[in-house]
Amino acid sequence: MLLSQQAERRLLLQPPLQTRVTQLFQCRYPVVLPGMSWISTAELVAAVCNAGGVGILATGPLTADQTRSEIAKIRQWTSKPFGVGITLLMPGAMDNAHVALQEQVPIINTSLGKADWIAQGLREYHGTLVCTVTNRYHAEQAITESHADALLVTGHEAAAHGGDVTSLCLIPALAQRFPDVPLIAAGGFATGRGLAAALALGADGVAMGSRFAVTVQSPLAEAAKQFIVQPQNHESMTIYGRNFDGIPARVLKTPTSMQRMHQRPWWPVIWYRAVQAAWKLKQVPLWKLLVGVVTRQISLDQLFILAQFGAATEALTQATVEGNVETTGVQFIGQSQGLIHDIPQVHDLMQTIVQEARHVSLDQLPTLFGTTTTTTTTTTTTCIQKNTHGNSQQQNQQQEE
Q1: 3-state secondary structure of 129
Q2: pLDDT digits (tens, 9 = 90+) for 220-237
């Protein structure tokens, strides 16, 4: 249900944080729920939006009709801006994108494909395009070819398909290279300290997939949630490789995932899976697939990705939906799982994150540098704005001296 203004005032306790992301998305806090298949559903998206962040609906497993239905549910449960995620490599992605454009969804987040036509559709109703990238080359393409309004920058620490470079290096590198483009940092962020660190590195917000997946409102199987929060499942309990779904990905470390990640299938198996996936994805018959490989229009790497991407679905649903994390399933999870120790309400989690980020930025760090910062509960400026203001004062003082 939609929250009344009075209810919102009671729930939203921490003052807003103002960054380019909050200005672009018209949200209270620069914290994003990324689109995670079978997890970022209407209920969780609405919960994050009502808590002051922005939720992105995952459409990978959905048909066009299901996507339209989920969008309607989100609008029933929140009046806040939200987004829809489109993984352009997935079956039905184009249909889902058309639905999002028809429904005039405020934000569309694309990955694994060129999104210039989506950007054109968004311009008709002043929507926002966010492109997911993992390196400088992808970022350049997203900005110049897809005309992205913002980038979701995914570091090596992230669940699923992070890149080769860690967030610690990737965020400042892209912030320096593309200073006019708002950045959302993803990969390794699950706490207020992480939010403060991302802002200090040059990002304008963070995406916290693994953290929001382990909340009360998340549809992630309860058995999976309980497994993740066990004390022994620390930040090293993940593995990274490309044999699971054909694209370099990070998953929860279990005997099943280790076997799937370390053993590359035989080529006859890859061929069989590729033929099945090609027909499902694009209705491509076998002879066209063969011609593509022979003429080198389709590389062996592309064939492998096609085969494994489709084959991974069953294992993912076994873990995410059924909760069979330790047996037949494989669970995407980031290294931030070592920071996840509870299963909170989304609103409580958001308040904790913002409160901790504010405390670190305004109380702890100024002490280290020999400065003091006065804060109150009615403050509405961000740590970045305060630091910028402080730096300007120091520069003016130096000039006067």
Answers
A1: strand
A2: 999 999 999 998 877 888
